Amino acid sequence: MTSLVMVTRKGCHLCDQALGFLRTLGHEPELEDVDSDDRLHDLYDWRVPVILVDGRVVAEGRIELELLRRVLGT
Q1: d(Cα 60, Cα 48) in Å, to the nearest integer?
Q2: What span, in angstroms and rounded, lies between the C-alpha atoms of 30 and 23?
Q3: Sequence-distant (≥ 6) Cβ neighbours of residue 19 within 8 angstroms
Q4: CA 36 to the chain's CA centroid
Q5: Alpha carbons 16 and 8: distance in angstroms, whole number
Q6: All residues at 6 or more sequence positions from 55 whose CB lies less than 8 Å from its CB, including other chains
């Protein structure tokens, strides 16, 4: 894995939960605010949180810890 990005927004409890899961698994993603970037907003507005590995969406919405374990291989 060369890049791990999480598209998020302020006040999003699902985003906070997903970030906690990533940190529990030992990952610190680059955070991108969906509301501060028009392109991200067009792509992911109602899908946040969105986790991308090497530019590919691997999880979105209500994200489960076990899914992240499988996707990230941890």
Answers
A1: 6
A2: 12
A3: 6, 8, 29, 31, 49
A4: 16
A5: 9
A6: 3, 5
Helix segments in 1-74, DSSP class H: 13-24, 38-44, 65-72
Residue given tokens 């993603």 in the structure block: 29
User: Domain 4-72: what homologous superfamily?
Assistant: Glutaredoxin (3.40.30.10)
Q: Which residue has the tokens 């985003």?
A: 15
pLDDT in tens, 2-57: 899 999 999 999 999 999 999 999 999 999 999 999 999 999 999 999 999 999 99
The residues spanned by each domain of the chain are 4-72
Q: How far apart are CA 12 and CA 59, in angstroms?
A: 16
- pLDDT for 53-73, tens place per residue? 999 999 999 999 999 999 998
